[in-house]
């Protein structure tokens, strides 16, 4: 059904914007299209038969950028009869029919709740030669039940929940992705096992707020239990998760992290602001004291833990004193890395219409000071690792400098980026393999290890990478959750400067 006029399979390309959740949704979009008979277009192919934009609504001017990109594609489409353009993701959920009004050459608009309909919508649009716009208000199928074309042989994302029950005033997620919907533990673990069976070594459990996982089926300790259950999966070497929420973070999760050997000692804990007044205005119900209390407990249980965070600077009403408080918390928490954002209005969020919007230059000046403080801390934290041995899961081309320097890259167990010299093992180490090496130099954002590696372990993920095989997880797993009855909800989004 997807064959082009010439009889060859139709090709597709997915262009992804935004957070990790969108990246994972794009893996599902690819999986669905391939199941429907499409083949991925070659990198250099400037005229794929189908181009899918998986959009993000959280960045300023996201819509201008989308319409700009759609504009560029118009002449390409005019020269390539049969080409189709689809727009999905958060911006599609938000703008809906507006997209085909502004860009009538778009063929399909689909929302965050109905990714699974994409192949049918493309087919219908072709058949009817008319645009198809389908946006659902709630989830019809849990996204993880859709076939997935994984991008990595060694690491995989697994959704545990979608949506969010919080109402942070800077965040568009609740209105676009809806209320939290939890996936059953058995289904999550089946998907993790399926990935491990394909050779995957590292799994990241994904949810807008992983700490509230279980809220739907009435078990507030469900997340800690899930981490421990991951510990029983043979062959699973690294378990990570994103993102927790300080409001719902419970001690049992710290215990589960500390006591489950394959759970990595890395924690991404969004702070957003160190000022209690700003947190209140953001409608974030924890305060800086609670935040620092959690960090203290995490460090007591796991002295080697690397803690990372998200910080927004220049939120409406933020005073110099509020900002100084954020710097204090940064110094006290000793983050190993921080994603820092200059506040900018996001249409549709309560904060966009708040009084006290700050001039851009004030926001920028604070931002520069924040970065300087963050880098001072992260550099000092990284320097503590010089001389230490780290276990690196080798990545595909992380760090563009690698080619120039002849180094390979990967992530240590605590999530730090490590560039290392392969020494006499050059040519033998594949993405997905495990290397032990000694840190010789620290920078604010990465570590270098320039001596001969101490050990190299070939893995099944490395074999798969060498053979050019990416894991695929089928759409239907044992005990597949059917999301139906209650007003379900959405697909995720993460690094939306959110949480
Ligand atoms: S920032 Fe995170 S926790 Fe807050 S509403 Fe958005 S998704 Fe939910």
Polypeptide structure, described:
The chain is of the alpha/beta class. The protein contains 15 helices and 23 strands. The chain has helices spanning 20-35, 62-79, 90-95, 98-102, 118-128, 173-177, 185-197, 222-230, 251-259, 276-281, 288-301, 320-333, 360-383, 401-405, 460-467, and strands at 11-16, 39-40, 50-55, 84-89, 108-110, 132-134, 148-149, 155-159, 161-162, 181-182, 202-206, 238-242, 266-268, 306-313, 337-342, 389-394, 407-412, 417-421, 434-438, 441-442, 447-449, 455-457, 472-473. Strands 20-21-18-17-16-19-22 form a seven-stranded mixed sheet. Strands 2-1-3-4-5-6 form a six-stranded parallel sheet, sandwiched between helices. A three-stranded parallel sheet has the order 8-11-12, with helices on one face. Strand 5 (108-110), helix 5 and strand 6 form a beta-alpha-beta unit. Helix 8 (222-230) packs parallel to helix 9 and helix 9 (251-259) packs parallel to helix 11. The longest helix has 24 residues, at 360-383. The protein is globular and about 60 Å long. The two termini are 42 Å apart. Residues 1-5 and 476-497 have low confidence and may be disordered. Residues 164, 166-168, 171, 173-174, 208-209, 245, 498-499 line the site of iron/sulfur cluster (SF4). The site of iron/sulfur cluster (SF4) has 12 residues, from helix 6.
